[in-house]
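hey
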């Protein structure tokens, strides 16, 4: 009985297996479909995909509709940061809640943003004339301090 189970296991191991399907499409990068002036909010019509260069550097974040052109971008030019950036969710001078959590205790302070930022960006804030901190913009008017 054990011999039969062993034979069945060996037969199953030797049976041909299907290889996982490989994605036949090469990686792509977003490029400008037309000339994009500085300050334009990108739409889906502004972005087309082209095959990526084999040795090209990967994108940290993939631009999408709603991102903003920070300079003039030519037709066919790859859309990469800092040429295009996510929309600013925070502007200099905006009031924010600066929050620090440690050991089950949460401290929240009212602060003023010293620079503009998108969600996920580092942002400097001022609590008063002498105290400044740098944290991450985690949501609308919410800065998480390290």
């Amino acid at each position: 009985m054990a011999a039969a189970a062993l034979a069945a296991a060996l037969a199953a191991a030797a049976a041909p297996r299907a290889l996982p399907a490989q994605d036949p499409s090469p990686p792509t990068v977003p490029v400008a479909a037309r000339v994009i002036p500085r300050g334009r909010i990108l739409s889906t019509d502004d972005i087309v995909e082209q095959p990526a260069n084999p040795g090209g550097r990967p994108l940290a974040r993939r631009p999408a509709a709603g991102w903003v052109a920070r300079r003039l971008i030519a037709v066919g030019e790859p859309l990469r940061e800092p040429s295009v950036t996510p929309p600013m969710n925070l502007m200099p001078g905006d009031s924010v809640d600066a929050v620090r959590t440690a050991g089950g205790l949460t401290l929240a302070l009212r602060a003023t943003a010293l620079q503009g930022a998108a969600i996920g960006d580092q942002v400097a804030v001022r609590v008063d004339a002498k105290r400044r901190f740098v944290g991450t913009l985690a949501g609308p008017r919410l800065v998480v301090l390290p």
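The chain has a mean pLDDT of 86. Residues 2-14 form the longest helix (13 residues).
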